[in-house]
Amino acid sequence: MTTSEIRYQPLPLPDRGDMTDAAMQAAALAHHDAMATRHTVRDFSDRSVPRAVIETAIATAGRAPSGANQQPWHFVAISDTPMKTKIRAAAEEEERAFYEGGAPDEWIAALEPIGTGASKPHLEIAPWLIVVFAQRWGTREDGARYKHYYVPESVGLATGFLIGALHLSGLSVLTHTPSPMKFLTGLCDRPVAEKPVMILAVGHPAKDATVPAAALNKKPLEEILTVISADTETT
C-alpha cells in the first residue's frame, strides 16, 4: 500500500497512563533530575559500546512524532574505524575553513567559552558516530516523489529522543554540525533526497573528561517559561 492509499482509521488508544497528580510530579522530577546529569563531552574513552544499545536508542528515536507521520529521518550508525577516520578528515577540513576566516568574528567569539576548535579527535575515538539525515521527500513504489512536511521539526524531535535515550543508557553524546556537511551523503552512501544535519559522537566519557564551565550555565525556569492559565491561585 502506498502513502496515498492510506485512509484515516481511528483506533482505541493502545497505551494509556493512569497516574495520580503526585505520581506525575514525582515522575517529572525524576526525569528532570536524570536529564540534568547530561553533559556534552569532547573527551571519550575507547571503551566499546554494544551495537544493541545503539540500535535500541535509534528505535526509540523512531517513536518521535512527525509531520503527517512521515518519519522523515534516517540514522547511519558507524563503528568502523577507517570510516570514522574519513569522516574526521572531511569534517576537520570544513572546520579549518570555518575557524580561519569562514565564520563571522561574532560567531567565533560566542564559541570561545565553549573551547571548540578545528581539531576533532572525538570523531575517531568515540566508539560510535551516528549521522542524522533528514529526508526531504519520499518516493512511491512507482518512483514518483511526494513531499514531506515539517521535516526540520520532525528530525529535531527524533534527535532529541535519541540523545535522551543514549544518555539514559549511560552514554555521553557530542552533537557536531560541520558546515557544509555534504561530504556525509557520499561517505554514508545516502540518496540525494536525504540531507545530513548532524553527527552524534557517542560513547563513554574518558576518565579525565572535562566540560566547559560556561556549559553549566542553564537559563532558569522563569526565563524559558511563560504560563497562560485560566487557573487563579489564591492565598
Automatic annotation (TrEMBL):
InterPro entries: Nitroreductase, Nitroreductase-like, Nitroreductase/BluB. The keyword Transcription does not apply. One of its GO terms (molecular function) is oxidoreductase activity. Gene3D superfamilies: NADH Oxidase. CDD domains: iodotyrosine_dehalogenase (cd02144). The keyword Ion transport does not apply. Residues 36-204 form the Nitroreductase domain. Keywords: Flavoprotein, FMN, Oxidoreductase. This is Nitroreductase family protein.
